[in-house]
Amino acid sequence: MTISEEQNPNLVFLRDKTSKLTTNPGCYLMKDNSGKIIYVGKAKNLHNRVNSYFRKGQDHLPKVWKMVSLVKDYDFIVTDSEFEALVLECSLIKQYSPKYNILLKDDKGYSYIRVSDEPFPRLTAVLQKEDDGAQYIGPYISSYSVRQAVEEANKVFMLPTCTRKFPRDFGKERPCLNCYIRQCMGVCKGNVSAEEYRSAVNQAIDYIKNGSQASVERMTEQMNAAAEDLDFELAAKLRDRINAIKKAAESQKVVTEDTRDMDIFAVSENSGKAYGSVLMYRGGRLFDKHSAPLGMTDEGSSMREGYMLEFYAQREEIPHDILLDEPIENTELIEKFLSLKCGHRVKISVPQRGALLRLTTLAKSNASEHLSLRVGRTGKEISALEELAKALGLEKPPQFIECYDISNLGSSDMTCGMVVFENGRPCKRFYRKFAIKTVFQQDDYACMTEAITRRFNRYFEGEDEGFSTLPDLILLDGGRGHVATITPAVRSLGINVPIYGLVKDSKHRTRAATASDHEISLHAYRKAFALVTQIQDEVHRFAISFTKARHSKNTFTIGLTSVRGIGEKKAQKLMTEYKTREALSAATVDELAATAGVGQETALSLFKYIHKDDE
Question: Where do the domains of the chain lie, and which CATH numbers do they carry?
Answer without folding.
Answer: 11-96 (3.40.1440.10), 111-251 (no CATH), 262-376 (3.30.420.10), 400-551 (3.30.420.340), 561-610 (1.10.150.20)
